[in-house]
Design brief:
Helix content is about 40%, strand content about 15%. It is α/β, with parallel strands linked by helices and about 325 residues long. An eight-stranded parallel beta sheet has the order 9-8-7-6-5-4-3-10, with helices on one face. Strand 7, helix 5 and strand 8 form a beta-alpha-beta unit.
Length: about 325
């Protein structure tokens, strides 16, 4: 495993982050492919064995049961000081108001069974709450020791800068990471967000790094998730014709190096120096092994240019235009 410094923090995170959207109670929400506690334990243990120390979840995943399952698994197999836990706040009553943030973080701490959260991420930009109120609440949590660092997720570059400038103006703690939608067939954040992150010294930790499986298996596979993941269908299916030529090139590169598509897709992400770690949602151990193997694949500059060449602009997917 390789580890990267997360922004200006003192956190060194594994380049593969295990995502918690695949964990939780199947009766909560519509994600019928997610793992129960036993399945979560198995994947988390394998991740730890492979050197993964970075785990990402959210207060809203499977109505909070993802945090419970992940917390239970980590307590079984790891010491608290050896793992870095990230969770999120926004998709809840009150969004990013002061009272909502404090309430939700206290709930997350209880569900995870921990005394502090290493990285608290605001899940989206809140159009209704003043940024000063949000940043004050986040700063308060860090000063109380309930949160070590803060990150943001899926917003426009100007919004992220507005929040950072607010923190600087008031002497508050600033964001160290950005969890954004980014992969080989969705690269819109390269236009404005990535130059800003580089300038700010903030690390990117992309989500949907495999485009919900479209970069790791045949697009029209018959997997349970491919049939039921309507959010992923909304994000990717309308641009299938534009994206398939890129995926065919990805398959070419995989054949050239005798590796999986997953390894190529993740190695491509790591070619971007702003990317510190990428989140993968895994339900089978063999796929976790593929993700970790990607660290050993070093694509050449020519490989990356070949994979980049056919990309066409896409509609923004991730950042919201309203609450």
């Amino acid at each position: 495993m390789e580890y990267s410094k997360l922004g200006k923090s003192d956190l060194y995170v594994s380049k593969i982050c295990l995502g918690g959207m695949s964990f939780g109670d199947k009766t909560k929400g519509n994600q019928a492919w997610i793992l129960d506690q036993e399945g979560t334990d198995k994947i988390v243990k394998r991740a730890l064995d492979l050197g993964i120390n970075f785990f990402d979840t959210a207060n809203c995943y499977a109505e909070g049961t993802s945090e419970i399952y992940l917390g239970n698994a980590l307590k079984k197999y790891a010491k608290r000081k050896d793992v870095i836990i990230a969770t999120k706040v926004y998709f809840n009553e009150g969004h990013l108001s002061h009272n909502a943030i404090i309430r939700e973080v206290n709930g997350s701490l209880k569900r995870l069974g921990v005394d502090y959260i290493d990285l608290l991420i605001i899940h989206r930009y809140d159009y209704e709450t003043p940024v000063e109120e949000t940043m004050s609440a986040l700063n308060e949590l860090i000063n109380e020791g309930k949160v070590r660092y803060i990150g943001a997720s899926a917003m426009y570059a100007y919004q992220f800068l507005r929040l950072q400038e607010c923190a600087r103006a008031h002497g508050y703690h600033e964001f160290v990471s950005m969890q954004n939608h980014y992969n080989m067939i969705y690269r819109e954040d390269e236009r404005e967000l990535y130059p800003l992150l580089k300038e700010e010294g903030v690390s990117s930790t992309p989500y949907s790094s495999l485009a919900a499986g479209r970069l790791s298996r045949p697009w029209d596979s018959n997997s349970e998730r491919s049939k039921l993941d309507f959010i992923a269908s909304k994000k990717y299916d309308s641009t299938k014709d534009e994206d398939m030529p890129i995926i065919l090139r990805e398959m070419e590169i995989a054949k050239k190096y005798n590796v999986t598509q997953t390894e190529v897709a993740l190695s491509w992400l790591f070619s971007n120096p702003v990317v510190a770690s990428t989140i993968v949602g895994i339900t089978k151990e063999k796929y976790l092994d593929d993700a970790v193997n990607a660290i050993n694949l070093k694509l050449t500059k020519e490989d990356v240019e070949y994979l980049n060449e056919l990309y066409l602009p896409h509609k923004a997917m991730g950042a919201r235009s309203s609450n």
